[in-house]
Amino acid sequence: MTPGPDLVMITNLVLNGSxxxxxxxxxxxxxxxAVQAGLGAAGLAALLxxxxxxxxxxxxxxxxxxxxxxxxxxxxxxxxxxxPAPAPQATVTVTVPAHATGEPHAGPxxxxxxxxxxxxxxxxxxxxxxxxxxxxxxxxIFLMAFLPQFVPAGMAPEIGVPLLAACYxxxxxxxxxxxxxxxxxxxxxxxxxxxxxxxxxxxxxxxGLFAVRLALGG
Length: 218
Fold this sequence. Notes:
Elements: H1 5-16, H2 19-41, H3 44-50, H4 52-82, H5 98-101, H6 122-134, H7 138-146, H8 157-190, H9 193-216
């Protein structure tokens, strides 16, 4: 629940996409956490902890993923910096009822984003969240090292640890949803091209720093 790549990704998706795609990414992150907890309970976390080479391979794979997202965020930031401000044009808005097309009305793109600058789809956002959390092998190791300490006396670990993992992940989802609502409320004041450029730049820096940290084993 501390600030990290997950929170940075959620913030960026709310500002550059929508609350819906950010929610999909959050669900992907929690799903990855649940999978890692399950694999950890099955012994994968212990295997990674006992196999430095395998653990390093997972670490480097996760670092490459984070570095790739850092590059994409940096390209968005520099693209916004180099893009000229669009000239105001007279437009005619034609409203088509949703029932006439059978599809929900998508509405205009968020301020600061062009119509052609489409954000990720819900499915893509879910995959991004899944990869963001799932590519970090320390998540499963942390859960398996941290949670057993809090299993109540007299409760079997094979029951207590999954229950605690479920509570931990539920709290994580609640925190992400709360953060999303806060950013969404502030979004009208944060979606200017300048603020979005700064946000993308900070996203690139954070992802890059976490990629280096993960690669170095910190």
